Amino acid sequence: MINSHIPTELIQLFSSNEAANYRIIPFEMQEDNHLRCYGDENRDYEKIIQEIAIIYDLDVAIERVDAEELDKALNFYYRQDRTFSSNTQSLHISDSDFVGKLIEEADTLKSSDIHFEPYEKKCRVRFRIDGKLIERYIINKADYPALVNRLKILSNLDISEKRLPQDGRILFERNNLKFDVRVSVMPTIYGEKIVLRLLSKDQGLLSLSRLGFNEKQYADYYRAIMQPNGLILISGPTGSGKSTTLYATLNILNRQDNNILTIEDPVEYTLPGINQMQLKEEIGLTFGSALRTFLRQDPDIIMLGEIRDQDTAQMAIRSSLTGHLLLSTIHTNSAWGSITRLIDMGVHPYLISETLIACVAQRLVRLLCPHCKKIFHPDASFTGGYNLNPQDNYYEKTGCEKCYYTGYLGRKAIYEVIPIDKYLSQLIRKSETDINDYLRQHDIKTLRDSALEMFARGETSLEEILPIISETI
User: Fold this and answer.
1) How far, rounded to the nearest angstrom, does the alpha carbon of residue 86 sit from its chain's CA centroid?
2) Which of 378, 338, 331 minimizes the C-alpha distance to 358?
3) Is residue 225 classed as helix, strand or coil in its secondary structure?
4) What's the pLDDT tens digit per position in 447-468?
5) pTM over 0.85
């Protein structure tokens, strides 16, 4: 039986094409480059073993398994290269509209980024779907330079510059699809790597009530954003959905009697009725300098893309103190950790206690594919340690065609919302770091609580929530 938990570093020894052609899956690396692989019980591997020994300097031993079981495992561990069809036309690198069809495919698969990566003998195209990169195409090395030039022309970049990084954008509009595509070009030893970030113009998903707040969290957060002044901080790592939460918040606050100003890097969504500014540090337009300008523009609400340094932090506090509602993000692991981060930036605790009205932390958790997830029973030590019923059914990923053999389909945000009351203001003044007892007494769910509840409901897997529940406040 094939192991369902093969280390990623072993899977990456071969590309999806190579694994499919050889019909092997590596599962154990032993001493002296001795590699054990699963193989088809009906196939002769003598020449394949010799070829791998010459190309990769690996001594391969084959453990034969059922052919059907091997096929399922290949689909699970390796995203097979496929030809995408758009309007009955196949997608080929020679197609003059290759980039346009690739963007359409990315939208169909709900991908956020497209990666073009050159290597010594081949180039590949990967899509980031639900936060994870999945290989979609292999491009001939000889065809890659033409693709790079095409992307540079579309994004108004210098095609002759191949030594320095470049940034550009493509305004894409077709068949009711509107994208602002951010283009980043970076030189590598094998050529230029390009990443396209797709920023959809569709505002339909920016509804605060649909993002993942539970009833109490939504009520606490809504009450905070309705305040006439103060500071609201949303924390989390890159890619945790902070910007989406901020935009959904602005959609609620975007009324005719509000003057809303934003400074962002980049402007991901354009919102009618809101004055949005793009950060340009190369000409001195920083978060801090933009905030100084904003205070002379009679704002009611300010959205600051990120608090990165002492100058920005001080200006954010000043803006909150002078009668404005300021929304921003900060990189911390927990909601309460944002206070410690501000103190580290040189903001005095009493200023934080006077201005902060809510701190929020969030993560994006992948949802198990409903078409193929299977029942899973965790160890009794785990269920006991986290107060879960060991008799309940829990679920783990499998992988099928509908989820591109990843086992997951879509993502959902989980939150930790801490409204700041008089008691917490006093704790902020004292730079208190441990508020676990307070959170339990007031039924405030932490990220750990929210993640465990998702797992208990069968929405996600244990491996998906383990990084979250291992974090501490």
Assistant:
1) 27
2) 338
3) helix
4) 999 999 999 999 999 989 988 9
5) no
